[in-house]
Amino acid sequence: MGGRRTHNLPDYDAHAALHTLAQAMFESGLFGEADIKGRAHCLATWLVGTSDTETAFVHLQVALLSGRTAEQKQALGQRLLAALHTTLPAGHGPVQLTVDTRDMERESYAKAVLEAAS
After folding, report:
1. What's the pLDDT score for residue 13?
2. Stated pTM of the model
3. d(CA 117, CA 115)
4. Are 101 and 62 in contact (CB under 8 A)?
5. For 44, left (φ over 0), alpha (ψ -120 to 50), or beta?
6. What is the 3-state secondary structure (H, E, C) of the chain?
7. Is-contact 84 60, C-beta < 8 A?
8. Beta carbons of 20 and 75 less than 8 angstroms apart
9. Rounded to an integer, what distance in angstroms lies between the CA atom of residue 35 and that of residue 64?
10. What is the pLDDT of residues 61-94, one digit of tens each?
């Protein structure tokens, strides 16, 4: 899970948002806890439309191993959109929230989990 937000949400707590979103993913029943990874980036330069730089946005991209149904992905997207909404600071200005779920080819995905080196 990767999140991007615009710089004009100065009170946005990205660390707390990652926890909220990870919990929502776990509670969906589609993931084990160790399968959820998150990162957040703050964008200093952005554009909404052709000239609007007042509207903020928070965009969440979720990469899923292939094999989930369209209904599961749609339900996950709606669950995450609702969770994302709860992460906004009070008194925020205009903001767009988006969630993009994408499949990764299960056959070509590689992962290694290493124990701490001694």
Report:
1. 95
2. 0.89
3. 6
4. yes
5. alpha
6. CEEEEECCCCCCCHHHHHHHHHHHHHHCCCCCHHHCCCEEEEECCCCECCCECCCEEEEEEEEEECCCCHHHHHHHHHHHHHHHHHCCCCCCCCEEEEEEEEEECHHHCCCCCCCCCC
7. yes
8. no
9. 10
10. 999 999 999 999 999 999 999 999 999 999 899 9
Q: Which residues contact 71 (CB under 8 A, 6 or more apart)?
A: none
Q: Sign (positive/negative) of CA torsion 26, 29, 33, 36?
A: negative
For residue 53, pLDDT over 90 is answered with no
**Tens-place pLDDT, residues 1-50:** 999 999 999 899 999 999 999 999 999 999 999 899 999 999 999 888 89
Q: CB-based contacts of 95: which residues, under 8 Å, 6+ apart? A: 9, 55, 56, 57, 58, 88
Answer whether 62's CB lies under 8 Å from 1's CB.
Answer: yes
d(CA 63, CA 102): 5
Q: What pLDDT score does 118 carry?
A: 84
